[in-house]
Amino acid sequence: MELIDALRTTGAVRAFTDEPVPDEVVHRLLDTARFAPNGGNRQAWKVVVVRDPDRKRAVRDAYLPGWYQYLAMAAAGLTPWAPVTDLEAERSALAGAGEQAAAAAAGPGGFAEHLDEVPVLLVLLADLRRLAAVDRDFDRYTLAGGASIYPFAWSILLAARAEGLAGVMTTMATRHEPEVLAALGVPEHFALAAVLAVGRPVHQPTRLRREPVASFATVDAFDGPPL
Ligand SMILES: Cc1cc2nc3c(=O)[nH]c(=O)nc-3n(C[C@H](O)[C@H](O)[C@H](O)COP(=O)(O)O)c2cc1C
Q1: For ligand 1, atom 17: residue with the closest CA
Q2: Of all atoms in ligand 1, which is nearest to the CA of residue 153?
Q3: Ligand 1 nearest-atom number relative to CA 150
Q4: What contacts 171, CB < 8 A, 6 or more positions away?
Q5: Beta carbons of 82 and 141 less than 8 angstroms apart
Q6: Contacts by residues 23-26 (CB-CB < 8 Å, ≥ 24 positions apart)
Q7: Torsion of CA 22, 119, 173, 206, to 10 degrees
Q8: For residue 28, what pLDDT is reported?
Q9: Ligand 1 pocket test: which of 148, 168, 204 has the largest number of ligand atoms within 8 Å of its C-beta?
Q10: How confident is the model at residue 1 (pLDDT cuts 50, 70, 90)?
Q11: Digit-coded pLDDT (tens) for 48-61
């Protein structure tokens, strides 16, 4: 498919058929994604392709607490875990996470509760010894290091689209990073960057809701005229 079309229409997919995604297909995705840009070309990514049911369940179990916290904060009108936020409002919202978990337990469960049933989970790790994190020493929240991993993650999802596959990037399991690292035998100098859920989509959403360029791009200064 056309590159521009793919960039404009590749939505997150969280529902998959039972069709397996064989190793050779995952290999093709990674073989394409490895050309992603990254700081200093250090290629600090590692990928654990998780198929084993116990390990998939361990990833799901690490995902769920953060998911319920996310729902509670979103329900309170917050941007969950925004580095700059109203911490008091966040604390009070988090009290609702238990209710979110109970409501989920009473129902059939969604993507999060069934994460272990996704055809394949790609756990993306960042080698902190090779990550060019130029804002490492700032007092504010550091951001630049992830930029060496997430283009790679996005390239995997675009490559999946080209195969008729689909998926979603998730970061919720990072709330319980130590458990994921332990379950997969990952050394401590790695960070959990994302878990990609990948499979054959039940439906591929292509009409995405995004703000127009003029809402986020200005000329010459932050308060300059909209582009
Ligand atoms: C860095 C990042 C973290 C994300 N984390 C999660 C996640 O933990 N769980 C999830 O279901 N979706 C997650 N998403 C998917 C977003 O919810 C999705 O990209 C966004 O809502 C836009 O959806 P759309 O492309 O279908 O319009 C994440 C996406 C990114 C880029």
Answers
A1: 12
A2: 31
A3: 1
A4: 193, 194, 195
A5: no
A6: 23/49, 25/163, 25/165, 26/120, 26/122, 26/198
A7: 100
A8: 98
A9: 168
A10: confident
A11: 999 999 999 999 99
CA distance 185 to 116: 18
- pTM to 2 decimal places: 0.97
- Give the type of residue at 94: L
Ligand 1 mean position, distance from CA 168 (Å): 6
| Phi/psi at 199 (5° precision) | -175, -170
Question: In whole angstroms, what is the distance from residue 130 CA to residue 162 CA?
Answer: 30
The percentage of the chain sitting over the pLDDT mark of 70, rounded to a whole number, equals 100
Q: Which amino acid is at 186?
A: V
Substitution site in 71, 124, 169 for ligand 1 pocket (most atoms within 8 Å of beta carbon) = 169
Give the separation between CA 27 and CA 67, rounded to whole angstroms. Answer: 29
Instruction: Return the structure tokens found at 30.
Output: 């990674």
Q: What per-residue confidence (pLDDT) applies to 81?
A: 96
- The pLDDT mean for the chain works out to 97
How many angstroms does the Cα of residue 214 sit away from the middle of ligand 1?
23
The pocket around ligand 1, CB under 6 angstroms, is made up of 11-12, 14, 111, 168-172, 205, 208
Which residue has a Cα nearest atom 23 of ligand 1? 12
DSSP string of 91-152, one letter each residue: HHHHTTHHHHHHHHHHS---TTTTGGGSSEEEEEEEETTS---TTTT-SSPP-GGGGGTHHH
23 CA distance to ligand 1 centroid (A)?
Answer: 25
